[in-house]
């Protein structure tokens, strides 16, 4: 009977101890020991206890802010074993944890309440919220943070540079170097048309034409180069068109003697029935056995692909023109997103010009 009772007691289930139940034992004057205790729990425990990681983060940040106290308070309490820099590194190491257990939203709120900017940025970047990272630095008026965020994540989200330009233009101080760097990235990625850039910078009373002189000069030079290329292409098309017109006129008014002896497809001697086209391929008239043409007897198989390519180019030019209009429209809408009046004005302008099809 005694043995049975002992066995029953040995099999009794013991609930795991919650480390949070021991907080009151440390009091306000033993925060360093409390940190050591929870660090031991986190490092040695296989199971994650709810709230432990969040509480340890709160301890790091509150202790870091309280590490630099007035001389009277420092004398009243024993010296801290954790320097502010050590506590900051411990907090960042905790946020870097890849294990499941840390409540991201709770940790983000704690970092925001404690003004722990490095932690806020780290948590947002881990979630891929680069726009929120940018807005965080904007909210604390950190120009360096804003620019570094754009440099770091601008390739993944180019619209960060557009938001950066809006913010720089709205600042009381004109950050010339930063504005010019932002314009360089906007120019390279073709994020905004020049007119919209000027409209954005016009919000800053300190902005001058000198600020965008280089940007506008490069843009105009590119446009002039493109215009010259277009003129050259247009002249080439005119010459080609004139040559085609003369050839068509010759076909209408002049008889053409067919002297081809061999089929342009198989190379064998032509026999009846045969089909002769008015075109020529590489200077040789196009003549075929009817059997070599297959089902399509109305189009030269040698010159047909080139004709189809020309037709496709014409259709592509028409569609690309419409695509450029649509792309510029949405760019201007994005650039004017801060002002409903400007967005409405953009829509009205495009409708009035009949640019929607």
UniProtKB/TrEMBL annotation:
Domain of life where this protein originates: Eukaryota
A GO BP annotation: vacuole organization
Bilayer topology term: Peripheral membrane protein
Localization of this protein: Endomembrane system
Keywords for the protein's UniProt record, in alphabetical order: Membrane, Metal-binding, Zinc, Zinc-finger
Gene Ontology cellular component terms for the protein in this record: endosome; HOPS complex
Name by which UniProt lists this protein: Vacuolar protein sorting protein 11 C-terminal domain-containing protein
Organism classification: Eukaryota, Cryptophyceae, Pyrenomonadales, Geminigeraceae, Guillardia
């Amino acid at each position: 009977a005694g043995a049975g009772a002992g066995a029953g007691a040995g099999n009794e289930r013991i609930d795991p101890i919650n480390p949070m139940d021991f907080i009151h034992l440390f009091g306000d004057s033993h925060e360093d020991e409390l940190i050591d205790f929870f660090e031991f729990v986190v490092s040695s425990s296989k199971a994650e206890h709810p709230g432990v990681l969040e509480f340890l983060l709160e301890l790091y940040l509150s202790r870091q802010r309280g590490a630099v106290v007035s001389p009277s308070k420092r004398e009243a309490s024993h010296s801290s074993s954790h320097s502010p820099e050590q506590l900051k590194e411990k907090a960042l190491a905790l946020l870097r944890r890849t294990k499941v257990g840390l409540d991201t939203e709770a940790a983000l709120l704690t970092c925001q309440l404690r003004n722990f900017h490095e932690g806020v940025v780290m948590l947002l970047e881990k979630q891929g919220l680069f726009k929120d990272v940018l807005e965080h630095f904007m909210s604390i008026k950190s120009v360096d943070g804003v620019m570094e965020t754009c440099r770091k994540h601008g390739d993944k989200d180019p619209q960060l540079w557009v938001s950066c330009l809006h913010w720089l233009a709205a600042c009381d101080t004109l950050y010339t170097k930063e504005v010019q760097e932002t314009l360089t990235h906007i120019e390279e990625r073709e994020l905004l048309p020049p007119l919209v850039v000027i409209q954005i910078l016009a919000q800053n009373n300190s902005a001058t034409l000198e600020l965008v002189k280089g940007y506008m000069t490069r843009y105009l030079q590119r446009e002039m180069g493109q215009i010259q290329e277009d003129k050259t292409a247009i002249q080439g098309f005119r010459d080609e068109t004139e040559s085609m017109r003369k050839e068509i006129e010759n076909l209408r008014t002049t008889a053409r003697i067919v002297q081809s002896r061999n089929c342009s497809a198989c190379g064998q001697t032509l026999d009846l029935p045969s089909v002769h086209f008015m075109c020529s391929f590489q200077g040789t008239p196009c003549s075929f056995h009817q059997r070599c043409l297959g089902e399509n007897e109305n189009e030269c198989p040698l010159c047909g692909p080139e004709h189809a390519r020309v037709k496709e180019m014409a259709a592509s030019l028409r569609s690309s023109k419409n695509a450029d209009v649509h792309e510029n429209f949405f760019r201007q809408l994005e650039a004017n997103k801060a002002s409903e009046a400007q967005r409405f004005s953009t829509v009205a302008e495009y409708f009035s010009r009949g640019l929607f099809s």
